[in-house]
Amino acid sequence: MITYPVFSYQKAKRMVNHQEKQTPIIEIKGLNVRTREGEILKNINLKIPRNKIVVLLGPSGCGKTTLLKSLNRLTDLHKELQVSGEVLIDGVDILKVSRDLPAMRQKMGLLSQRPFPLPVSIYRNVAYGLKLKGIRNKDLIAHSVETNLKRVGLWDEVKNRLNSPANSLSIGQQQRLCLARGLAVKPAIILADEPTSALDPISTRIIENLFKELKEHYTIILVTHVLRQAVRLADHVVFMYYGDIIEQGHPDDILKHPKTEVLKKYLVDGN
Amino acid sequence: MRTWKVWEQQLARGISFLAAYSVIFILLFLLFVVFSKGLKALSWETIFSLPKGGYYFGGEGGILNAIVGSFYLSVGATILAVIIGVPAALFINVQLIRLKRTQNTIRYLLDALWGIPSIVYGAFGFTLMLLLGLHASLLAGIITVALLITPILVRAFDEVLKTIPVELQEASFSLGSTKTETALRVIFKQGLAGFITALLLAFGRGIGDAASVLFTAGYTDNIPVTLDEPVATLPLSIFFQLSSPIEEVRERAYAAAVVLTFFILLISVSARFLSKRYAKNIIK
Ligand SMILES: Nc1ncnc2c1ncn2[C@@H]1O[C@H](COP(=O)(O)OP(=O)(O)OP(=O)(O)O)[C@@H](O)[C@H]1O
Ligand SMILES: [Mg+2]
């Protein structure tokens, strides 16, 4: 029987020495995204530190979602978007890879504004990414499904109905399922685009607490419109405005002592 | 003022009530006429035997030739329509995604094709048949019926694809699927219920249509063994028997109509059942 090196990522991570831990996990250099109508992202330069929660703030339409999608190249799905520049994930420019794109994308888990489970059972949603990785061992898959559902606090709620359709869960449960599904492929980064905007306060709290735990092992990039959520979670805040990064830094500086007028106005309106 | 409004409301309610129930009434009346006339003449022999000599003058035999023939023809046409229709629907939804104008023009044209009477397809199929050097045969019939049902199938598939949310594809890609894996494991599953309904809809239209096969499929008392042979169909079998001056043969036409109606009902019920069954996982 063949065994698969499932923990290779973790092992590799342990091998990373301290100095490498200080280097940013993502480095964006001169990223431009434009359509025929105009520019959506203008010359973005940004370093995302490892094992931190980076919060992207900014008014609606400033390009936060587009920035997230360029990180794992979901912009490919929108042919009208022209993307240029560099997005280095652990030193590899994802905009240049072709054959390795699926593997690169597996380094990043995605949570969207509204949860979109796959049109299969709860169990298969979590197992999906593992099967893509070529893991066929049933016990291994079952173990991973259980571990990841436990991690997002969903196991007790669904353990008796693992074969029910994922769409039978509540929206809050679906969002946690999507998180479990993403975690199962062992990403290093979590891209979360307003993950709690469709959720009730309790589910929101659950997700927020999860994020706090998860940043031990993951880098989280979080888009939110809720300033209080940013205060609760952020290690680093990036404020965007019309496709530009206007200010960034520690949340205490950015949110309490904004330098630019636009950010001041945004913070006032937001509160 | 108020009384007028109340009166108006009641009138509207009355009209919609009448309209809804008259549709149901007409359907039930139709089924009653067909079944009451047809069941008398229907027997196992009708379904399981070929017409023997003099069948159309009241002799012994059945309409197995037409039942099997219709089945062959519709299955063949549906397969052909799927072969053309699936890539066409994908093309509209994937390649033309940026060209909304072109997309809508094609959709409009396909809808227009849907509305063309089937006798026109029959005439066109006949010309095409001569052009291709074929004669009235199973193959020519399949091609003509495929022409008739392909636009239906493409549009129905297209409607299903249109409703598949792009976020679902994003979810699949972000988990590391390739395009093929996304298509097979996500889009196909999400659309399956709709695809099945579309398929059965097209199949049902194919099996019930008489005019398109009138010139192209021919007619025979046997079951064709090759694509080159003529083929009998249920609608034409009904047509020929109904044109007979002999009362008994006309009654048999109703028996054939019962068989055809039964198939159509069976198709629509299974479409319902299957789409329900495969719809349970759909993400809305
Ligand atoms: N596929 C696209 N085609 C054309 N324009 C687009 C496309 N995607 C995004 N845009 C435009 O790019 C700009 C930024 O959009 P984006 O969704 O990134 O904003 P956002 O910051 O996430 O806003 P919100 O807070 O409302 O989610 C918007 O003006 C939007 O209209
Ligand atoms: Mg957004």
Automatic annotation (TrEMBL), chain A:
GO terms for cellular component: membrane. CDD domains: ABC_PstB_phosphate_transporter (cd03260). It comes from the Bacteria. One of its GO terms (molecular function) is ATP hydrolysis activity. GO terms for biological process: phosphate ion transmembrane transport. It holds the Pfam family ABC_tran. This is Phosphate import ATP-binding protein PstB. Residues 26-267 form the ABC transporter domain. InterPro entries: AAA+_ATPase, ABC_transporter-like_ATP-bd, P-loop_NTPase, PstB-like. Keywords: ATP-binding, Nucleotide-binding, Phosphate transport, Transport. SMART domains: AAA (SM00382). The lineage of its organism: Bacteria, Pseudomonadati, Bacteroidota, Bacteroidia, Marinilabiliales. It comes from Prolixibacter denitrificans.
TrEMBL record, chain B:
It is a multi-pass membrane protein. Residues 67-271 form the ABC transmembrane type-1 domain. The keyword tRNA processing does not apply. Keywords: Cell membrane, Membrane, Phosphate transport, Transmembrane, Transmembrane helix, Transport. SUPFAM superfamilies: MetI-like. Belongs to the binding-protein-dependent transport system permease family. CysTW subfamily. NCBIfam families: 3a0107s02c. PANTHER family: PHOSPHATE TRANSPORT SYSTEM PERMEASE PROTEIN PSTA. This is Phosphate transport system permease protein PstA. It comes from Prolixibacter denitrificans.
